[in-house]
Amino acid sequence: MADGMSGKYLLSKAKNLSRVVTEEDSSAQVQGTYFIEGVGKVVAVEIDDSGKIISAIDEKGAKHSLSKLNQLSRVVTESDNNTEIQQSYFVETIGSVVAVEKDADSKIIAATGLDGGKYQLSKNNKLSRVITEDDLTAAFDVVIYGSGMPLITAAKTAKENGLSVCLICPDKRVGGMMTAGVSVFDGAASTPSASYGGSVGFLGGNTRKVLNEINTYYGAGSALPAPFTFEPRIAQQVFNRWCSEYADITILDCKLHDAYTSVLKSSNKLSGIWTPKGLIKGKQFIDASYTGDLLRCAGVSWTANVESQSSAEPDGGSRVSMAYAATNVDLESVGLTGADAEDAVKRSQFTIVSGPSDPLIPADGSAIPNTTIGYGTRSIVTKAADRIAFTAYKLASYDRKNHLVFLARIKNTNFDAMTNDQIVRDVIGDQGTIRTVSGEVAFNSNNAKIPQTTRLALDYPSANWQRRLEIEKDAIEHYINHCYFLATDSAVPAKVRAAMAEWGHSGKEWLDSPYGVGIQFKVYDRQTIRMINDNIVTAYDLRQTENSGHITDKIGIFSYFFDGKKRLAFAYRTDATDQKWTLIEESKVTDANTPMYAMSMRMLLPRATECTNLTVAWCCAMTELAFHSCRMEATGGILGEAAATIATLAIKQNLNVQAVSYADVKQKLVSQGVNLGAL
Q1: Would the CA dihedral through 160, 165, 170, 171 be positive or negative?
Q2: pTM for this one?
């Protein structure tokens, strides 16, 4: 042992006196020194804000991170052999490994930690802790997984009924799309009955209270305007306050993966959810997420299929030939021919086919397996003085070739007949204008009238979270790059560039976004999967008026048109010269005559054979077409309150959720101020 300038040195396996690196050493001190026990030279370190080393990479490329024992420890992977794994640590979970089990190929498939914990190879090919009943961190009456409106209305409902509540959110903040870009609270957009007070006047219960509190910020007291509009940062304040008041604990950034690693379940009953804070146990669970991960982990049946056209779904199935009018584009006009044109078409996420009758294009009304709507972004753009210019963000992923098909599509547009505001709306968004706040006028941008900013991601529903984050990154970066292209590229019409110069990203929203101030952090993922039970609600059900008696287990009333988005896009050469292409994109379904309809309690309940203590407050049991109308934040608020009401009664009456009486649910909902219309 010897003293150095200000550190301790020990004899390493290489027989050299080597600096003992501690977590307190700075990056400058650690470079060029050694980790003892044969680690070798450190080639890179990561330090936190306090200067503490939290990870390092040795000269062999192995990573070392801070373990639960507060030591920099080797990150062990399944490819490490037995010699390397002994005396090492599993970062943040295991501690020292005292035994391993390998298969015939010498791959480690199980391990025992110093703390006695058992680890096995999970479905995602990682050594993961085997959760047992002894892993208890905390127990609650109701555990709610999600992020948007159903999360907080469920939390408030359960708490006000005297229950303890834990919220588990897959995102890094609560609020879902209401805090990630959606700034219009849609509902009854077609022909609502005047007796319900217009666009959102029919809302009651805790859903109404959320909106009233947001509205109070704008000086309107409890008088709810129609249509109701707001800014995401204001919704964030309300969500944060509600979570702090109506949840005993809120756990953020907990993304559920699969049943093996995410939940504890015995037979047909959930016991707990494994989180970064340990196992959270509950008596009742609510899946209030957009992605339905809890119901999947619980073994509940689900689908991402589009049902075929039928009497119950007259607008169901594939709608490619019922599409937006086919668009003919001359790619040579933007410098693209031959292979370059084909590459640009693929970059714009069109599937290249031989022609309009290509077998890859599904027949009208046919079922489509494992698909979902495209993923757009819902940003806020503004003309306010503190706006961030669209030219401010040029990403490493920027490539103008990704935007040339769009440029060809707008070549023949008469922008001179449009105002600058109309131009910006049409090239990056189509959501109308929201209220003026402190002189700022902003609107959502998502799926442009000239479609471009929506990205297709048909694998999103069944993808793991790593893939979903890749999809999210692609969609958000594409939006940022699309704005930059329109604002800067000399080939873009001068009128468009001039209009873009008047606008910019909001300087008030998303100050902590990883993509930059004013850039949304989440994709529009409100339609992913739907639960399957024995009583699936169809579009036919929703087309019956709420007082028709068709739905006998009414838990709320709603109305919104059947607002589908594109899922499929195809392109084929219009002629043999490769200069002109025809683009076809699946149509949206709109139904301007959707009545005020009743939502059914059966939508929320899994089969008793699959799970008896789970209710579903977003990815409910309905067809894909019916979901087009129900996937609104207002609906989420109604469903969240109903789900928590069912859970409350199940706990207090010691029943499975399927055995809870609708009569009791109705009585409690009415007492909570929920509007059930004509009873």
Answers
A1: positive
A2: 0.79
